[in-house]
Amino acid sequence: MAFHNVENFSFGYFLLKAYNFLGNLVFYKKVVSFNKHNVPKDAAVIMAPNHQNALMDALAVVNNLKGSTVFLARSDIFRKKKIASILYFMKILPIYRIRDGASELQKNQKVFDKTVEILRKNKRLTLLPEGNHAGFRRLRPLQKGICRIAFQAEASTDFKLGIQIIPVGLDYSHYHKFRSDLFIHYGKPINVSDFYDSYKENPQKGMNELKMRIAEKLSKVMIDIQSEEYYESYLSLKDIYRDRLGDQLKMNSSNQPGKFICDKSMIAMLDAYAEKHPEGIKDLDIQVKKYVTGLKKLRLRDWLFKKESYSFLGLVFRSLLQLLFFPLHVYGIINNYLPYKIPVLLTRKVKDEQFLSSFRYVLGLITFLIFYLVFIILFCVFIKDPFIRLGYIISLPLSGLFAFSYFIHAKKLIARWRYSFSRGQLKTQIKALFKLRKEIRNSMDQVAGEVKPVLPDFN
Asked: Does CATH place domain 3-220 in 3.40.1130.10?
């Protein structure tokens, strides 16, 4: 597999994707896709996801769709030939930027020609139209590369290719944490041929119009908080008020896509309120920031404050369950701690936090494979019973997931104890935060009264 045949079927790639798919099932606690039927089959398609989480954005599309997908990545990772050959094997092509040097930009023509060839073969191409990643839940200005490639491919066939661009909204519950959730929202196709007249009249005009349409459609299928001044408060309000807004919209806000729909509705509602009542949104922002600062100071999370206190008997029962399953937790730690921890240690000095999950995910695929193979070989040397061997092999990933889940539940249990049965100043501070959260929700009720929440438009 090389540059010239990157789009062709490869059995090695098939095996890699299968293993990567298993890794994806383990890395994420839940992956939910919405409106996947919008992706046409056997057609020239360009997938256009928002770009917030480095390599994980491209892998989200690759793992969620059948078949192979060729996508583009920054050229600096292709500098070494061995690494470049691996990237071509993974169906990744380089894209050169001005920061790579003016002389390097001319190499893009060869890449563009290759992408045109891929599309003419009705192969799927993934381009990240924002050009670079940033850890903000907002759509940033798009680059023209996706439009240039689409029009070049169409022009080469006198606009008979029928390229469709699919906006893809990616929403991570957390960018870096293991066992977070991922929501993938596929928008309706954008037909490049609709812009043929504008492109024929003036290529720049056609590309600008297409770029604006992609931005418009992509914004609708992702969490897009354009407010910079109140960005953090918008994020916090999604958790604080989502359930009550879900009741108003008659939407299940505890699971996707209901959670996503409520968040989109809330952002639109807050934007409208900020425009109508600038002083009111400032007061709300002050309340939210005070609440969030209080949570950080006490090292507590918002979900705790959904109740004023937790049952003593319920906490005792949970604690007994933790003790009961502690041996299984230890078993999972013994078999999984090193392959889990090594990627974390190796990425401690990564400067760009948005690369953390990408590096840890790839390193984890390697470390778990190596350690599991070693453990299985050693186990099979001493244990001859085939059923016990099979049971051990199956237990490796399952015990690892259990150990991690046990650890998270233990942390939450401790937090519940602290929240419900603290004394003195800590108890006073917790009660004050609980009251403040209630006031924020009441303020949001007033916002919803001023600006009626409506279901978002995905068309």
From this structure: yes
